[in-house]
Queue: 4 jobs
Job 1
Amino acid sequence: MPLITVDYTDRLAGTFDRRGFGLALNRLAVKLLDAKPAGCKTRFRRTEEAVVGADTETFALVAVKVEIFPGRSAEAKAALGEAVLAALPGYLGGEAGPVQATVQVEEFDHRAYRSAVLGG
């Protein structure tokens, strides 16, 4: 575990190295949250449009949500958020323009979570 979701705006679709960023996120979770490598799951969702702020400047948006089991310290969660924001620019590509980026680390009820490898 963790379950990581990365929402990103359509404008980044052609330049965002999603696979590279996903692998980096998984490595950060292993390093900073003591997660098991095989338990790290990162998915990407492309969003057609996002509105940031109230002015006319157009930003791309990357919103990272990290869902984890309870028990990590506030410091570990904050360190993960900072590390994700520091790593992100290296995967956006030079044509990204201004990008708003957010990271949210949340705990969820581990008693209600199930995971399995299906098929073969």
Note: The CA atoms of residues 81 and 103 lie 6 Å apart.
Job 2
Amino acid sequence: MALRIDATDRKILAALQADAAQSLDDIAKAVGSSKTPVWNRIRKLREAGVIGQQTVILDAEKLGFEACFFVLIRTSEHDKDWQARFLKALKSRPEVQEAHRLAGDIDYILKVRVKNARAYDSFYQALISEVKVHNVTALLSMEEIKSTVALPL
């Protein structure tokens, strides 16, 4: 049976997306309920997999990661062995914040966060030494205009 998400659940999820570190009292107050029913709803949402890993968002620039590259990858390889090596290479690299397999002319897009262009080149050289790719295009983000992980509930 699928979990039914109602308006109160959505309010709880919105509150958690805004600040997962806020107290249960604050969340209950924001949704117009008491702590125990809110806690039970949060527990059910976790158990159903609606709420996943909780973490903190760090300021990349303040930590010295000033360059964000979007890397477009085309490959002429599509067999299972190549894909396994490619996925292993991506998952082992902390610079890769996101990776998506695409429909269309480009096979993959990566979001890569590094300290500078030299660090990106090191990442690139290491990646192509592990897996063969047909074409790589790196696009440097000049300005981050919007970034969020919040869903539009």
Note: The chain has two domains: 7-47, 61-140.
Job 3
Amino acid sequence: MRQKIGILLTCFLLFSFQNSVAQFLPVTKVVDGDTFWVKRSNGKEEKIRLIGVDAPESRKTGNKDVGYYGKEAKAYLEKLLLGKSVRLEYDVSRTDRYKRTLAYAYLQNGTFLNEHLIREGYAMTLTVPPNVKYAERFAKLQAEARQKKKGLWGK
């Protein structure tokens, strides 16, 4: 009986530990400066839209033209993400009307990607309730980027 309890306890602890460890997902493709794809452990790919940021369009789609600094924003995100993995954090709404997963993303070195893109001027803030966890923080960073004429605020 003790052995069975020990085995059950060990299994429970291992399961709990695995679920508490941050899961990093490999990035497989960058769509533009605020959207990319990751591969889940089951092999399925998932489209991620960064919460709280809006990068200029990097390609003409439908009725949207290529935006000023759009190609630079995409290239920068590719440089940061391709061949790397990210950890995702969610807010209140997990998906948008286009069925993309909404998330905050962290690089393996701890960089908060959403924040970084705004700070460096590769994206603007875009607050869409109820996902407002970092809205004030992002607004301050955007004001600083504008003042310092970084990225899309530079020309």
Note: Helices lie at 2-20, 70-81, 113-119, 135-147.
Job 4
Amino acid sequence: MSESGRPWDEGGPDRLYTVNRGRAPEEPRPVELVSLIVARAEPEPGMAPEAAAVLRMCRFPLSVAEISAYLALPVSTVGLLLAELLGDGRVEARAPVSAAVLPDPELLQAVMHGLQNL
């Protein structure tokens, strides 16, 4: 039992060591916090629970930061997990959707006035 009284401390060093299989975080990271991850395979029997969870949750694009939050794991640990999944071709990393270029302020005002006149 952990010091917090829970049977398994989610963020404890022993869990992180197990998830990482003893590997240290890499520099630079294989993916950025805002990179979108999309699953390209289904979970398989015998797969690590965290890797299977990533494949299930990433049927639709999720950012690395979101995956980290959902798994309650540090970004460095998730980065190692994703690097392995990327290397196996089980997931794909996409650049984040760029912010749309704002239209001309005069155009925005014209649209706003047009809507107010309706």
Note: The first strand starts at residue 36 and ends at 39.
